[in-house]
User: Which sequence fits this backbone?
């Protein structure tokens, strides 16, 4: 992380979050793996009570536009690593034919 970043939390603003897979490997290129990630994201969204305005899941990274959670500070919500723990190692292909961009309300 860059030094000196200023973080604004509990301001009722939307946050744009981007994260990459380990070594930018296309771990989310397989439809089954990607769907597992999306289901897990929905479980976390419901548990912490944040709005997910939109998301894009690409083979090697994810973009999220979300509100601040009702239950916790944004910094305390599970990291992307914990969302991908449900993805079995070796279950991914090196190519992807689909990109998702769907809001969850």
Assistant:
């Amino acid at each position: 992380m860059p030094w000196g970043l200023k973080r604004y939390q509990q301001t009722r603003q939307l946050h744009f979050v981007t994260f990459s897979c380990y070594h930018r490997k296309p771990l989310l290129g397989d439809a089954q793996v990607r769907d597992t990630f999306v289901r897990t994201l929905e479980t976390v969204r419901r548990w912490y009570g944040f709005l997910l305005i939109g998301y894009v899941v690409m083979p090697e990274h994810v973009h999220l536009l979300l509100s601040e959670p009702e239950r916790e500070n944004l910094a305390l919500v599970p990291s992307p690593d914990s969302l991908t723990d449900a993805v079995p190692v070796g279950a991914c292909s090196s190519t992807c034919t689909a990109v998702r961009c769907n809001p969850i309300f």
